[in-house]
Amino acid sequence: MHRHKVEICGVDTSKLPVLKNDEMRKLFIKLQEEGDLSAREELVNGNLRLVLSVIKRFNNRGEYVDDLFQVGCIGLMKSIDNFDLSHNVRFSTYAVPMIIGEIRRYLRDNNPIRVSRSLRDLAYKALQTREKLISKTSREPTAMEISKEMGIPHEDIVFALDAIQDPVSLHEPIYNDGGEPIYVVDQISDDKVKEEEWDDKLSLKEGMHLLDEREKMIIRKRFFQGRTQMEVADEIGISQAQVSRLEKAAIEQMNKDMFK
Fold first, then answer.
1. Cβ–Cβ under 8 Å, residues 157 and 146
2. Which residues, at least 6 apart from 78, have a Cβ–Cβ distance to it below 8 Å?
3. Residue 217 confidence class, pLDDT cut points 50, 70, 90
4. Which of 50, 107, 148, 215 sits in a 20 to 30 Å window from 193, CA-based?
5. Prediction pTM value
6. What is the C-alpha separation between 145 and 69, in angstroms, rounded?
7. Cβ proximity of 165 and 145 under 8 Å
8. What span, in angstroms and rounded, lies between the C-alpha atoms of 237 and 90?
9. Phi, psi at residue 43, to the nearest 5°?
C-alpha cells in the first residue's frame, strides 16, 4: 500500500522505524549499563512515532506542528534519560505523560494570559516534583503527595497549578458513558436572565405540557433556575449522565410537539 510522505521538521514520518519491546530493552541496557550513546539515538528515532501520536491531541491549539514536534522530542529524550527498567512498565506508559507535560509547559509559556512569576515558578517546581514522583513510583501523584514532597501547603500547590492551566472550550466534552457526551457548558450555571432569553423561556414553558413530572422538573431547574446538571442530579438523586439524557430527550420531545 502506498504511504503518503509527510515531513515534520524535515523528517519523513512515513519512514520512521518502530522498535519492539525486546529491542527497546536491549537498547536501554546498552545505554544505561554501557553508556552507549548510539543506543540512545536509536531509542529516540525508534519512538518518534510516539511523539507524533501525542501531538495529535494538540492539533486544535493553532500551534505549528513542527514546533510541537520539537518540544515533544525534548520530552521524549528526557523520558529516555530517566527511564528505569527495574520498574517493569512499558516505556510508552512512562514517556507519554512526560511528552505531554513538556508540550503543556511550552503552551503555557506562550499563553497570552499572564500569571505572576512567583506563582508560575511554584507551579513549575510542582511539575518538576510531579515528574520526579512519576519516575519513582511509575504512577500519577496526587496534589497532596506533591505538597508533602515539597513541604508546601496543599492549597498553594493546587492554586498554582490551576493558575497555569490552559483555557478550555465551553464545548469540550468532559464525560461520555457511550451515550450523549457531557460538555463543560453543562457544568456552568448562570443566575442572570438576559432580555434576549425571555422568548426562549416562554417557548420552553409552552412546550413542557407533554413532559412527565421529572422531565418538567429538570427543564425548570436547568433553564429557569440556572442550575448545572450536577446540581440537578444531586437534588433529585440520579446521576449527571441520566440528567443529561433526560434533558436532551425532553428538549427533543418539545421540539417535535412545537414544530410538527
1. yes
2. 98, 102
3. confident
4. 215
5. 0.44
6. 31
7. no
8. 41
9. -65, -40
Phi-psi bin for 6: left (phi > 0), alpha (psi -120 to 50), beta? Answer: beta
254 burial type by CB count under 10 A (0-12 exposed, 13-18 middle, 19+ buried):
buried
Place of cell 497570552: 112
Q: What's the CA gap between 32 and 39, in Å, rounded?
A: 9
Confidence of residue 151 (pLDDT cuts 50, 70, 90): very high
3-state SS, residue 1 = coil
Q: Tell me the C-alpha distance between 58 and 209, whole Å.
A: 45
- What are the b/e assignments for 43-79, b being 16+ CB within 10 Å? beebbbebbbebbeebeeeebeeeebbebbbbbbbbb
* Cell reading at 145: 503527595
Which residues does residue 56 pair with via DSSP β-bridges, in sequence order?
A: none
